[in-house]
Amino acid sequence: MKNTLKEKLQHHQQPIGTFFELGSPNAAEALGHTGLDFIIIDNEHGPFEAESTLSFVRGAELGGVCPLARVREVSRPAVLKLLDIGVKGLIVPNIHTIEQVTELVSYAKFAPIGNRGFCPTRKDAWGYAYPATESVAENMAVCNAETLLIPQCETIGCLEQIEAITALDGVDGIFIGPFDLSISMGIPGQFEHPDFQAALQRILNACHQNGKFCISFTVQPDAVAAGFLQGFDAMAYGLDAAVLVQAYRTLIAQVRAQQ
Ligand code: 3PY
Ligand code: MG
Fold this sequence. Notes:
By secondary structure, the protein is an alpha/beta fold. The protein has helices at 4-10, 25-31, 50-63, 76-85, 98-108, 136-146, 156-160, 162-167, 178-184, 194-209, 222-230, 240-257, and strands at residues 16-20, 38-42, 66-70, 89-92, 148-153, 173-176, 213-218, 234-239. Strand 1, helix 2 (25-31) and strand 2 form a beta-alpha-beta unit.
């Protein structure tokens, strides 16, 4: 049940992750040998559903990288399936209102924080992960503490309510979606725009004032270190498939230059 990402966040170890798009258990396991701290199995933009996500979670666990998943939508089945297979955190896209986040907390956190439905599943070794296996209350408390619930801030609506959203019990942190946020602000892809930079700072401040983690995403390698300097607790860099393409392009160019 231990959540290595949460531990690294708490110890300010500046974890680095990536979006998982390659879609095989082997690929998830291999990413565990790269130095990455977490992967986000993408059930929003990626083609995956909970059943395939489960095999990627196993691969990630074997490789020693913390598996998170991005859920497709705020709905009870979508949230429960990913949590019950044992992802260590949920990234939740397309949040527009605090009411959506309240609904999300009710699905994702057990009572007394929310109203998550209970069943012994893979997340708790089908009920055998606890010293006191008969203790449903302890199981619920551990799951609440060890499973990170991380809405994305990527719409103007979410940005405008970010102080109230980050104050909600059950919200462990925020993941910034820079592409959609900049689009929602009418400045698509203009990540250096002063308004966009002010928005990032506002989200970061709201998170930290409420004792929550703030994670940002970039596709620019230099922006990872810059993000940590700015104060983000973790950074996600790119997509594994894009990194693979870039690595082979560099390799092939080097080989061709030697011919
Ligand atoms: C965004 O930038 O909008 C994201 O959600 C990252 O995938
Ligand atoms: Mg997005």
